[in-house]
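Example 9 (inverse folding). The structure is encoded as follows.
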């Protein structure tokens, strides 16, 4: 067997003939062999699915739960800088040693006769579930990787299930029928358990799916709501339902710098998981919650992993208008299975100059192709580069003190930039 975490990750990439292979039969069999389905992995489990907003919703639930004294564990994907980010206990990343132990458990179970082939994500999910099951958790938080019904995370029956938003993404695997995508995402719901619908623009199939299995539906804008407006940084109020049907309200809540719809959803889900919310604790948690790569400012740079039009629209709303005496740059790198035109169109009103970068790998899109699309849509392309780091190097020679840079389009784009010192024309006050 491999010895180090790096060796395990390399090994796992070679196990299965394809990178994504939807279905639960293989992963369920190995989970049974590992004993992961014999008992709950935590006292309570919340699963989060959706096109956008999964990470921010989960991060806020985690911060809120820990603020209320709960021992939490999280499983998220993908990671930005270290694989260890995918598994945390009480806010601390899993150690290499713990992850290696988990992968060893997965491999022993996988190789029992008959041996089972697992994808990289499936093996990682089983490792994460094993790690969380060892941690004596009050609350486990699981982020769905792709879809819902057939995602490896869905082998766990959640006590509360959340669908955040639904938009067209991963069309190669989920298709372009938004109602069918809604049914796939709603596959994480369980009969008689709370199903939290965290967007007011979800396709009808999501609520229909919840009703069909008699899940307890809690819909944003109906069962729970918030008073937040469009002004970033303004305090807001939350209104929700307790498990007994009583009404709850929390006011004077700070802007967490993440979508307020997702914050409201986090509060409702945590309530349904049995947590009594205290307003001072909620305020403190929302002030301190952080999530790398989501509207993350590093000096003059704003880094956001948004890679579809819905995410780009949110970024465009939150990004300040182009500076009067400077330029609003955008450094963009995207994968070839993403809607580049939709992302570019959403950002065009906020960007004066673009730097396009190539992402490596089979799914990577070239800088030249991005530049052609931006130009055809009326944007100004300043330059192209062979990688995000090379794009940052080009910008280093051009940045003025009044300029800002949005780096976006992919986890891969943001991850490469976060791993390096970003050029600055001045010390920013941000």
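The amino acid assigned to each position is listed next.
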């Amino acid at each position: 067997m491999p010895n180090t975490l790096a060796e395990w990750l390399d090994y796992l990439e070679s196990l299965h003939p394809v990178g994504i292979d939807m279905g639960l039969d293989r992963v369920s069999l190995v989970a049974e062999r590992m004993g992961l389905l014999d008992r709950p992995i935590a006292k309570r489990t919340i699963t989060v699915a959706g096109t956008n907003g999964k990470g921010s919703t989960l991060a806020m639930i985690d911060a809120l739960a820990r603020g209320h004294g709960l021992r939490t564990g999280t499983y998220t994907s993908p990671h930005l800088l270290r694989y260890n980010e995918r598994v945390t206990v009480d806010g601390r990343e899993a150690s290499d040693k713990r992850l290696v132990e988990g992968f060893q458990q997965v491999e022993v179970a996988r190789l029992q006769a008959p041996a089972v082939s697992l994808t990289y994500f499936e093996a990682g999910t089983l490792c994460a579930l094993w790690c969380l099951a060892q941690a004596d958790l009050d609350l486990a938080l699981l982020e769905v990787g792709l879809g819902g019904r057939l995602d490896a995370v869905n082998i766990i029956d959640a006590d509360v299930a959340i669908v955040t938003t639904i938009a067209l993404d991963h069309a190669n695997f989920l298709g372009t029928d938004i109602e069918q995508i809604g049914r796939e995402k709603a596959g994480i719901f369980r009969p008689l358990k709370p199903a939290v619908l965290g967007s007011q623009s979800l396709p009808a199939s999501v609520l229909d799916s919840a009703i069909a299995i008699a899940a307890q539906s809690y819909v944003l804008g109906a069962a729970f709501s918030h008073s937040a407006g469009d002004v970033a940084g303004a305090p807001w109020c939350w209104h929700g339902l307790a498990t007994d049907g009583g009404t709850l309200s929390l006011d004077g809540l700070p802007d967490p710098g993440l979508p307020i719809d997702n914050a409201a959803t986090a509060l409702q889900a945590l309530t349904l998981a049995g947590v009594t919310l205290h307003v001072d604790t909620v305020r403190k948690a929302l002030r301190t919650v952080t999530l790398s790569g989501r509207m993350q400012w590093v000096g003059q740079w704003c880094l956001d992993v948004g890679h579809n039009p819905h995410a780009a629209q949110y970024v465009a709303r939150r990004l300040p208008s182009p500076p009067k005496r400077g330029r609003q740059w955008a450094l963009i790198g995207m994968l070839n299975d993403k809607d580049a035109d939709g992302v570019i169109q959403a950002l065009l009103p906020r960007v004066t100059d673009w730097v396009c970068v190539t992402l490596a790998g089979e799914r990577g899109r070239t800088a030249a192709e991005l530049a052609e699309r931006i130009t055809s849509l009326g944007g100004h392309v300043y330059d192209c580069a062979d990688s995000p780091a090379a794009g940052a190097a080009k910008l280093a020679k051009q940045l003025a003190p009044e300029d800002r840079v949005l780096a976006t389009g992919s986890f891969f784009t943001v991850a490469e930039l976060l791993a390096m010192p970003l050029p600055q024309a001045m010390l920013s006050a941000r």
